[in-house]
Amino acid sequence: MLFNALIRTHHITSRKKVSALKRAADTHRVAVLLRSGGCPGIMYVEGAERGQVEEWVGVVKRLRYKDFQLVSKTGELVHEDAQSSASTRDKINVGLDEVESVKEFGSAMASKGIWGWWRRGMGYS
């Protein structure tokens, strides 16, 4: 079972803060995807334990991002794609990855089978 959360901020441009987020992802053993470089800043986190995800979200809060919004609180990850196998779905790659556009971020969410969840969280649907 995996848990996830979605955060939206005004922007993510500080490389120092991104480094802190990467260290926190490694420390708390979670997978993180960032949309950095412009508006909006988007952060997606998933982990094997609820506490790991919540601790990483706590790190983000302490970094005091402008317009921080926890748009989807930590909860059990529910895949919309019933066809994907459980063995593939329940694996995470610990660490931090970055994308430069909302379109790329959406594609990553679609490949994880949570595109509708992401769109609802972002207020697109």
Describe, in plain words, how this protein is organized in 3D.
The protein has 125 residues and is of the alpha+beta class. 40% of the residues lie in helices and 26% in strands. It has one domain (3-122): 2-Layer Sandwich (Alpha-Beta Plaits). It is built from five helices and five strands; from the N terminus they run E-H-E-E-H-E-H-E-H-H. A five-stranded mixed β-sheet has the order 4-1-3-2-5, with helices on both faces. Strand 2 (31-35) and strand 3 form a beta hairpin. Helix 1 (15-28) runs antiparallel to helix 2 and helix 4 (102-112) packs across helix 5 (115-122).
Give the end-to-end Cα distance, rounded to a whole number of Å. Answer: 26 Å
Number of domains: 1
Judged by helices, strands and strand pairing, the structural class is alpha+beta
CATH architecture: 2-Layer Sandwich
Number of helices: 5
Total beta-strand segments: 5
What proportion of the residues form beta strands (DSSP E)?
25-35%
The CATH topology assignment is Alpha-Beta Plaits
Strand order of the largest sheet: 4-1-3-2-5
Gyration radius, rounded: 13 Å
Main beta sheet: 5 strands, mixed
Helical amount among residues, as a percent range? 40-55%
Q: Order of SSEs, N→C?
A: EHEEHEHEHH
Q: Could you say which overall geometry the principal axes of the C-alpha atoms support?
A: globular
| Average pLDDT, all residues | 91
- CATH top level label: Alpha Beta
Unreliable residue runs: none
Summarize the structure.
This protein is an alpha+beta fold and 125 residues long. It contains five helices and five strands. The longest helix has 14 residues, at 15-28.
